[in-house]
RNA sequence: GCGGGUAUGGCGGAAUUGGCAGACGCACAAGAUUUAGGAUCUUGCGCCGCAAGGUGUGCAGGUUCGAGUCCUGUUACCCGCACCA
């Protein structure tokens, strides 16, 4: 009798072997097919790993361990996305420097991940806070700046009136500061912006040909929000022209008023002519307290608000009538031109607004009942009350009016995107310094590339300043420098980059992590890129994914990378919820720590459990009681070594189960259906037990197929059984299709779709013979008695259905 | 509000994509073994019913010989919404 299964000795033993022998380190090898598998690198938080992290790491580890055994050259790296707000806040609260917090957190994360036996190539670890890394993050920013894709703009930020700092949206709870509870207002601040909108069209179009799961692709398309319409120029009594964007230029005759966002620059310009300046200012102040999110929220019981501008009116270019202008917070400064033409008859929000303020509602598309509600159907409507457009369909009218506007010089066709430019400045310490210098005579100047990295100075007072600037602004010795252009006095930009920056290109650095001369060597990039398979959370679908695709496309345009897309395939894992079915969080107290699971059950059990828990793409609640089942499975695999017979080969009665399992596991793993693959392994184990134990060769197949899921125990058993070498280096088993099928099969017999019996027959039985057998069956005869067969359905090898009457 | 999802036993989940619903596991029950069990093994296990049988995939309709799967409508819940990452 062998000793009990003891993961506490087995697991560290093999983890040590892997690290010392560098089992999973790779080099470029043109002779082998490369496979670049990527999982999102974590933000190393002070809480350490929680059981949600290992789910994607393990799932991809299963794939790559299998691919290696199939002879592929696998790159599977890991690193740290370590700049960011939580670390800074933790540092402020606990008076420990963020650099130290970060180092400690990374060390903890690394050892926790290694304890899970994930086969990462630890020689390629990257860290976004390492100056040798962020040198290149800054370099990319400079290239963007040189190509005109980085610019400064006044943007509104969340300003805490109590703490006097800029807050992240997350730190604002119900309009108040999360920490001090003070009022949060919107405040204008000059910010660095990146022109991701310039790439909006390509970010949609190039999705074609990529293997992204559908919900990811759809989300990105919707987030970018391409729409086709027109820009129309309205005149005003103030003399200025107002340009609006609309997807419904056909309805311009029905535009009975205009609405601008409360932040619209004309309001300042028109101050002298506005007769109700106080009311306008009061409304602007009110709007400043709301986020865009709150402002666009449209619920039936929520009344529209707004103020009519007195003293200035607009002129509808189609009707040439004067129409009033309102300001209202349902119009956002950040979308379109920050002003709209309102067509209450054919837009729901305009309709609600018009009803509230008693504005005229004109029907210009017939087909609905505008007495009751806005008519928004573009398919069936016919133009009315629209001069030369009358009688046209909506589509025809769109074209006709656009041509007319162009001829009159009052508009043009325009494609618009919901996507906004990327706000790239953070008034924080723990981020990459933006490598720009302000010179009073030369304006903003990029620092010279040979000055990179521009290191983040080590300071002790990393709390934001009272003016809302980054804490770096307090350090004159760092801020004061010379202008790179004229050599005169200059001041450094004190804002830092957002955490998204470092994560927008990290997959490139893994290809050549120590390169001091370039982002990565071109040949190495050519070998490894693009990433063949990228798995990550749904929460990164629109931000991180689009930011990194944008940067990659830019680097492609300037010749740094050779592929226009970074990721060929994207899959997404579901979250692991707490035992109570709620999101794991410290405040709910439902966080499960993987260390505890490993120490009680072992890493292999943890891995098998997380892969067995359910559909990888769906959220799944943690269940401590269920883990036992996974451990019991491994215990039984371990115990089976004692009943292995000396017989060779696969016995005939086990051929079908063995070959079917090889096939199922091989296919399921590629589709991340690890749960059903494990179920198949459990079934094979049950078959072996039922057969009184496996032969040495049968057992070998089980151990081999188990290896990607439970690498430690399988490596140990492989060694004990003397199969030779390590499983990790053994060739993945193959199945013989002919051996997966049985010669006799069971066919279900239904009457009116209800199963009423079975017949057992040869696998290749024909229709007539099968029907005859079914009719001969006693139970079926009873069902068919006194009935008339109307139809006989035959699904070869599977099913017979008699449709009967009477 | 906008966008993306989900719904199957007491629980986690399977179902070759229109063909025997509940694989595999957890929990539970009975039995065996054991000084003992939070160990191991055997058997049972959707619901109603002694049974025959009936019924059953959020809810209401529909298509079909046949629907968890397709269509129409509906409800509930989850995720994201641009400075958390």
Features:
about 800 residues; alpha/beta; five-stranded parallel sheet; about 20% strand; RNA-binding
Quick summary of this structure?
The chain contains 27 helices and 32 strands.
Describe the model.
By secondary structure, this protein is an alpha/beta fold. It has 27 helices and 32 strands. Strands 11, 12, 13, 14, 15, 16 and 19 form a seven-stranded mixed β-sheet that branches. β31 and β32 form a beta hairpin. α1 crosses α24, α18 (594-601) packs across α19 and α19 (603-612) packs across α20. It starts with 6 loop residues before the first helix and ends with a strand. The model has no long low-confidence stretch (mean pLDDT 89). The structure holds one RNA strand of 85 nucleotides.
Helix-strand layout with pairing:
Elements: H1 7-20, E1 34-39, H2 54-69, E2 73-75, E3 79-80, H3 85-94, H4 98-114, E4 126-127, H5 131-146, E5 150-160, E6 166-167, E7 172-173, E8 176-177, E9 184-194, H6 200-205, E10 211-212, H7 214-224, E11 226-236, E12 241-246, E13 257-260, H8 266-269, H9 277-287, H10 292-296, E14 307-315, E15 322-327, E16 339-342, H11 348-357, E17 365-366, E18 382-383, H12 394-408, E19 411-417, E20 422-423, E21 436-439, E22 443-446, H13 476-479, E23 480-482, E24 489-492, H14 500-503, H15 506-509, H16 522-528, E25 533-537, H17 544-557, E26 569-573, E27 576-577, H18 594-601, H19 603-612, E28 620-621, H20 624-639, H21 652-670, H22 674-690, H23 696-706, H24 711-721, H25 737-740, E29 744-751, E30 754-762, H26 767-776, H27 778-784, E31 788-795, E32 799-805
Parallel strand pairs: 1-2, 1-25, 3-4, 10-26, 13-15, 25-26, 27-28, 29-32
Antiparallel strand pairs: 5-6, 5-9, 7-8, 9-20, 11-12, 11-14, 11-19, 13-16, 14-15, 17-18, 21-22, 21-24, 23-24, 29-30, 31-32
The structure holds one RNA strand of 85 nucleotides.
């Amino acid at each position: 009798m062998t000793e009990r299964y003891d993961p506490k000795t087995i697991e560290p033993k093999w983890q040590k072997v892997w690290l010392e022998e560098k089992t999973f380190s790779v080099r470029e090898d043109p002779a082998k097919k490369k496979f670049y598998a990527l999982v999102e690198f974590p933000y190393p938080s002070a809480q350490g790993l929680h059981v949600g992290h290992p789910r994607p790491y393990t799932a991809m580890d299963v794939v790559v361990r299998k691919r290696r055994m199939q002879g592929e050259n696998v790159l599977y790296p890991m690193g740290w996305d370590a700049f960011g707000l939580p670390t800074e806040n933790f540092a402020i609260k606990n008076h420990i420097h963020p650099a130290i917090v970060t180092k400690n957190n990374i060390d903890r994360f690394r050892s926790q991940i290694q304890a899970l036996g994930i086969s990462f190539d630890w020689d390629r670890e990257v860290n976004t806070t390492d100056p040798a890394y962020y040198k290149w993050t800054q370099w990319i920013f400079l290239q963007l700046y040189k190509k005109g894709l980085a610019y400064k703009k006044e943007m509104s930020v969340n300003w805490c009136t109590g703490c006097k700092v800029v807050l992240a949206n997350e730190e604002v709870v119900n309009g108040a500061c999360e920490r001090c509870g003070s009022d949060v207002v919107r405040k204008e601040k000059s910010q660095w912006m990146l022109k991701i909108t310039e790439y909006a069209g390509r970010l949609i179009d190039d999705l074609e040909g990529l293997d992204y799961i559908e919900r990811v692709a759809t989300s990105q398309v919707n987030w970018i929000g391409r729409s086709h319409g027109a820009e129309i120029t309205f005149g005003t009594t103030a003399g200025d022209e107002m340009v609006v964007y609309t997807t419904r230029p056909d309805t311009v005759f029905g535009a009975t008023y205009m609405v601008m966002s409360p932040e619209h620059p004309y309001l300042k310009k028109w101050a002298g002519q506005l007769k109700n300046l106080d009311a306008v200012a009061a409304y602007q102040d009110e709007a400043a307290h709301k986020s865009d999110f709150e402002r666009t929220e449209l619920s039936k019981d929520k009344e529209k608000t707004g103020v009519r501008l007195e003293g200035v009116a607009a002129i509808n270019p189609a009707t040439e009538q004067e129409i009033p202008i309102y300001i209202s917070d349902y119009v956002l400064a950040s979308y379109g031109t920050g002003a709209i033409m309102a067509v209450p008859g054919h837009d729901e929000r305009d309709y609600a607004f018009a009803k509230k303020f008693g504005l005229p509602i004109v029907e210009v598309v017939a087909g609905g009942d505008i007495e009751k509600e806005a008519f928004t159907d573009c398919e069936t409507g016919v133009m009315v009350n629209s001069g030369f457009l009358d009688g046209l369909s909506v589509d025809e009218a769109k074209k006709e009016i656009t041509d007319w506007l162009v001829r009159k010089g009052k508009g043009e066709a325009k494609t618009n995107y919901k996507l906004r430019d990327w706000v790239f400045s953070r008034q924080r310490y723990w981020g990459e310094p933006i490598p720009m210098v302000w010179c009073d005579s030369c304006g903003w100047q990029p620092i010279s590339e040979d000055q990179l990295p521009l290191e983040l100075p080590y300071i002790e007072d990393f709390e934001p300043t009272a003016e809302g600037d980054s804490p770096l602004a307090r350090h004159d010795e760092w801020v004061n420098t010379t202008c790179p252009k004229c050599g005169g006095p200059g001041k450094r930009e004190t804002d830092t980059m957002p955490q998204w920056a470092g994560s927008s290109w990290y997959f490139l650095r893994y290809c050549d992590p120590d390169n001091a001369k370039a982002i990565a060597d071109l040949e190495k990039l050519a070998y490894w890129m693009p990433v063949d398979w990228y798995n990550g959370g749904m929460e990164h679908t629109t931000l991180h994914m689009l930011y990194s695709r944008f940067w990659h496309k830019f680097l492609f345009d300037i010749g740094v990378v050779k592929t226009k897309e970074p990721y060929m395939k994207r899959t997404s894992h579901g979250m692991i919820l707490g035992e109570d079915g709620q999101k794991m969080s410290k405040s709910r107290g439902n966080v499960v720590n993987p260390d505890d699971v490993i120490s009680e059950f072992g890493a292999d059990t943890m891995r098998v459990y997380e892969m067995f828990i359910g559909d990888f793409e769906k959220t799944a609640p943690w269940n401590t009681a269920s883990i036992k089942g996974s451990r019991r499975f491994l215990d039984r695999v371990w115990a089976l070594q004692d009943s292995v017979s000396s017989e060779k080969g696969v016995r005939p009665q086990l051929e079908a189960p063995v070959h079917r399992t090889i096939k199922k596991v091989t296919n399921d793993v590629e589709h991340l259906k690890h749960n059903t693959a494990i179920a198949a392994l459990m079934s094979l184990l049950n078959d072996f037990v039922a057969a009184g134990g496996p032969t040495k060769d049968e057992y070998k197949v089980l151990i081999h197929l188990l290896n990607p899921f439970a690498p430690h125990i399988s490596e140990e058993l492989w060694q004990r059984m003397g199969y030779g070498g390590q499983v990790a280096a053994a060739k993945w088993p193959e199945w013989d299709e002919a051996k997966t099928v049985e010669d006799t099969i069971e066919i279900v017999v239904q009457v009116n779709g209800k199963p009423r019996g079975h017949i057992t027959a040869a696998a290749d039985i024909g229709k007539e013979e099968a029907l005859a057998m079914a009719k001969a069956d006693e139970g079926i005869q009873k069902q068919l008695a006194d009935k008339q067969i109307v139809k006989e359905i035959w699904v070869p090898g599977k099913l017979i259905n008699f449709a009967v009457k009477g």
